[in-house]
Amino acid sequence: MKYENIDMKLRGRWIKHTLQFTFSAGTSRGFLTERPTYIIVIEDDQGVRGIGESSPLRGLSPDDRPDFEQQLHRVVEKVAKIPPPNTPDDVDHWLQQHIPEDHPALRFGLETAWLDYLQGGQRQIYPHIFQTDAFPPIPINGLVWMGNREFMLRQIEEKIARGFRCIKLKIGAIDFDTELSLLAHIREHFSSDQIILRVDANGAFTTGNVMDKLRALSAYDLHSIEQPIAPQQTEFLRELCQHSPVPIALDEELIGVHHPEARKTLLDTIRPQCIVLKPTLLGGLAATAQWIRLAEQMGIGWWLTSALESNIGLNAIAQFCASRQVAQPQGLGTGQLYHNNIPSPITIHNGFLHYDGSKPWDFSLLGL
Fold first, then answer.
1. Smallest Cα–Cα separation from 88: which of 46, 127, 49, 48?
2. pTM for the whole thing?
3. Starting at the edge strand that comes first in sequence, how are the strands of the sheet with 138-139 ordered?
4. Each residue of 196-253: pLDDT tens digit?
5. CB 3.0-4.6 Å disulfide test: which of 84, 182, 190, 236 passes with 195?
6. Cα angle 46-52-56, degrees, rounded to a multiple of 5
């Protein structure tokens, strides 16, 4: 599908919006209270507006750099100066021509803004998946953030009460025995057939202690552990994936691997059980699709995760996900983390992400 923009004058701009967490969100890299994000707008003189989100994740994104806003400004200016992509299929080529590959968040933001614009600016960037103004519900995991035992236990019980059947715990920053006790608490009440358990160490373990920790974790019948050790320890990680009693999912390991052959070599060398895909960190939806193709060719499992974007970025990732008819839980439950998220049709009910077409988008917080 193509939105006819012949002879339309195009312009691009960006808006900074600082998302405020509803609580202090703990990871092994520290605690988060706010999240700067950048909204990219592509519009024409007829009022058609495509909206995307470029949201580098501090400490992780290759484009988390002091001159990011200057880079963003230069890229957005190109919208008015360079011939645009004519169809959604042309967008990835436009990105490759005009945005360096080491700016993955910029690519994701421009990619989704273009896709939205070329589909008529309705925030339905994959319109073929919508039926009666909604895409199919997506199963998601309930994310439990780090904190003291009482805080984490309260999150676990709240997530289960709300119907989540997959729980993911951030681990690696508080006392390990406390973290094990939380997993034991869940398993005392729910089997793996009732509740899927995932953990995410964000690279917190060391080569010296990781195997002992994995053996301890294996007692709780975990679905997987994300990135148990820091990235770029390829040979050790390969051995770990071969011998770990808990399936290993690569996450941070994928960041900065841009060339298709390098991606193939990484997966073929390490042979993880799973990979976790964050389009903002990987260079957008087309880049993510390439990771998926490689993983499926090698029999490696995968799921998608948002990188703490607002509902604008989350909407794009969710639609990409829905277009692939996923069955296992995805990591797309971050839309409720903020006091000042962008009001949208995205809702969560009984452990599923939904798009409720009866609820409008409201961009007044952005001045739109």
1. 127
2. 0.94
3. 138-139, 352-355, 346-349
4. 999 999 899 999 999 999 999 999 999 999 999 999 999 999 999 999 999 999 999 9
5. 190
6. 150
d(CA 355, CA 344): 9
Q: Which of 159, 168, 170, 213 is catalytic?
A: 170
| DSSP conformational letter for 295 | H
Q: Distance between CA 314 and CA 311 in Å, rounded?
A: 5
Distance, CA of 86 to chain centre: 27
Burial call 76-105: b when 16+ CB within 10 Å, e when fewer: beebeeeebbeebeebbebbeeebeeebbb
In the chain, how long is the greatest CA-to-CA distance? 65
Is 278 noted as a catalytic residue in this protein?
Answer: yes
pLDDT digits (tens, 9 = 90+) for 112-159: 999 999 999 999 999 999 988 899 999 999 999 888 889 889 999 999
Cα(316)–Cα(130) distance, rounded to whole angstroms? 13
Contact (Cβ atoms closer than 8 angstroms) between residue 72 and residue 38: yes
Per annotation, catalytic residue among 159, 168, 213, 278: 278
The verdict on whether 159 is a catalytic residue reads no
For 61, phi and psi rounded to 5 degrees? -70, 135
By C-alpha distance, which of 174, 147, 130 is closest to 24?
147
**DSSP string for 60-117:** T-TT-STTHHHHHHHHHHHHHHSPPPSSGGGHHHHHHHHS-TT-HHHHHHHHHHHHHH
